[in-house]
Amino acid sequence: MTNNEDKLKKIISHAKEYGFVFQSSEIYDGLSAVYDYAQNGVELKRNIREQWWKAMVQMNENIVGIDSAIFMHPTIWKASGHVDAFNDPMIDNKDSKKRYRADVLVEEYLAKIEAKIDKEVEKAKGRFGESFDEEQFLNTNARVLEYKEKMSAISKRLFGSLEKNDLADVKSLIEELEIACPISGSKNWTEVKQFNLMFATQIGSTAEGASEIYLRPETAQGIFVNYLNVQKTGRMKIPFGIAQTGKAFRNEIVARQFIFRMREFEQMEMQFFVRPGEEMKWYEYWKAERMKWHLSLGMEAKNYRFHDHEKLAHYANAAADIEFNFPMGFKELEGIHSRTDFDLKAHEEYTGKKLRYFDPELNESYVPYVVETSIGLDRMFLAVMSTAYNEEKLEDGSERVVLNLPPALAPYKVAVLPLMKKDGLPEKAREIMADLQEDFMCQYEEKDAIGKRYRRQDAIGTPFCITIDHESLTDNSVTIRYRDSMKQERIAVADLKQLIVGKLKQKM
Ligand code: ATP
Known about the structure:
This protein has helices spanning 3-17, 39-58, 75-79, 82-85, 102-128, 134-140, 142-163, 167-176, 220-224, 227-233, 279-296, 342-351, 377-388, 425-437, 450-460, 470-475, 496-504, and strands at residues 21-23, 35-37, 63-65, 87-92, 99-101, 193-196, 200-203, 211-214, 240-249, 264-274, 304-308, 318-326, 329-340, 357-359, 364-366, 369-376, 389-393, 399-403, 414-418, 442-444, 464-468, 477-482, 488-492. By secondary structure, it is of the alpha+beta class. It folds into three domains: 1-77 and 197-401, 2-Layer Sandwich (BirA Bifunctional Protein, domain 2); 87-195, Herpes Virus-1 (2-Layer Sandwich), CATH 3.30.40; 412-505, Rossmann fold, CATH 3.40.50.800. The strands form seven sheets. The chain has a seven-stranded mixed sheet with strand order 3-9-10-16-13-12-11. Strand 19, helix 14 and strand 20 (442-444) form a beta-alpha-beta unit. Helix 5 packs antiparallel against helix 7 (142-163). The radius of gyration is 26 Å and the shape is globular. The chain binds adenosine-5'-triphosphate.
């Protein structure tokens, strides 16, 4: 097992053991790719959502929020292109009976070639030492160039065939590359078929009267169909944005890797309506802004990179992913898409209603262009957890597991701990707790030795532990212990709130 797989396993088991994420329907042996957030997870998730809402809505006068319904008129998904084009190419291995995304099989093959390039770089670094110029090496080394050429030929063919919907060629490519099923090891594949990812169900009670509707596969369409309502009632002037967070559903073909790919998940999306022709400026703007948001949370820049799309979705004229270095490697965390006027125009066509904006400066009406930012809340949760999870060796030789969460994201900010369960210490602690609770999520614990209680708080990422001892009763002071440094200091109860508020603003 590689270290990375090991890390993902550790995060999954920590998330379960400490009440962050449970498998859905666990007592019925679980439901694949569906998860429940537990008592600590729900708080972490809420805090990430709030940080997003603050950055997008609270801090931007020209962005407002909505909360549209999951069920929508079924024709919306026809207009948006999802009924016809929201497909993934799937392929089954006849021996293992396992189903794969055909494009992902090829992409994994490409990742293996990329790993070979990385290996060449490492070897060369060792050989040349100080004088090594990585960029020059990548551009001139014969073997690297050969790998790169191979990669580009393969991805060109894959994207070309997908574009033309030439699924037979996608299968030929898999065969030519001799890609084997990771489970059975066999190359005995079925044909490649398109598989629509939307969940359908019936609305209405009688068989005759019922009609088929979909669980929304993205939150964005709820914003598009409300665009004019919000623009008019909010008297919004272009450029302006509409933001929303909420559940989305996709019947993913391959659902592995914990909360990275789920069948029911939560999105945080913002559609920014701009003048036609100005979309590229705003696209660049939002790419930069969104990256800033990630870093402002205290996430490390080295774990992020942009990936510009070669194959664009049916609605986009430019698209980039913000990729994060998950325990499984760099993968999409957020998408920034320039969606043109595709969606609003389609809704105009299907409804026969005008979705135009009258621009007083230009003295003309037009269908706005849209730049969207779309991030999966669950993926962000996993990114935060995998950064925060640390196993530390302490000076005394012992070990601790700690979640070094940015304080603003931690489920509980403060733990209130009376040193002993007697002599009036619990009463004093309760008094402090009641006061702090007004402002912060607090936990009260009096069971077990203080060291054990500190460890439990470390494991759920509580940044501050307040300990009440006998001295507290006479001088109204307590000990505050910091999670990351484990340093302790004495502080007057009267100064606690201000100190915590200040520290909560700090980064990881
Ligand atoms: P992928 O290529 O990984 O399937 P996507 O390109 O289909 O993702 P988008 O349609 O751009 O994803 O959705 C926007 C965001 O929603 C993604 O960046 C991701 O964070 C999140 N997301 C999409 N699908 C899932 C899923 N099945 N589980 C969890 N999050 C998801």
